[in-house]
Amino acid sequence: MRNPGQFILYFLLALLPTCTSFSEAGNASRAPSVARLVRVDPSGEGDFTKIQDAIDAVQSNNLELVFIRVEPGTYREKIVVPADKPFVTLSGRSGDIFGSPTVSVLASDFVGRYLTIQNTHGPGAKAVALRVSGDRAVFLACRITSHQDTLLDDAGRHYYSNCYIEGDVDFIFGDAASLFEKCQVHSVSQGGGTITAQRRASPSENTGFVFLGCTITGLADTFLGRPWGPYSRVVFALSYMSSAVLPQGWDDWGDPSNQRTAYYGQYKCYGPGANTSKRVPWSRFLTSEEASPFLTADMVDRKSWFRNAPSIFN
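The structure corresponding to this sequence follows.
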């Protein structure tokens, strides 16, 4: 059993660049602009001194926007947003969160902003930093780091914008329908690591991971992904790939039958790791027509559920 004391949650100032607002993120749907403001401050100057206490105070089957502002400080706790508490925003001030997973989002309509979510267990074992199992979840300018299994992108529709995601083995995994836009994805594998392990189990599932306009970097050789599910679907589009990306690109996880069913695509990527001449023959080099469904938010149906950040608090 791991020592839970090794997982420390931080909210610090000015560690991440300013992120786009909901409306700037694209075609935000309108929602009530008034939110209930709850302040968490370890000094005792807020409504709560612990983040989980603030979440626990949200009414079950909540129907109002609850904006939990976390003041700078050190928080030694494990966070769960239960499934019966939707419409919660957890926000630092352009800052940071640090078991397994450290943070679990089970509720729908969750927003995370300016957070660092880190599992500090280290290499050699599964150490989930963030689990997202609720529908309609948004993460803006967040930093999500661990080693193996960093981000359990489990189920639902999710949008990640201007985030930094780091790990070594299968560090973005699960069966959600997720769009990663303008994110940096960084492998700390010492060689032979894998970025994605998407779990789509049948062709009828509208799930998969799309990396749009992202930057892919690493310390050593890494695969773009391998199929956790036989119909695993991952697309990289208009993204920069450093030389850390292995020439073959993809791995079949030791099962050649996965080559017939996995959907691994690349469209107009660039950089030394984007060369397609040595890619595995069962991966796809998408035409403009084939790529078009992945170049918009249609896969996650973003237009129907995005909301503007609240402008009035009570």
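The longest helix spans residues 51-56.
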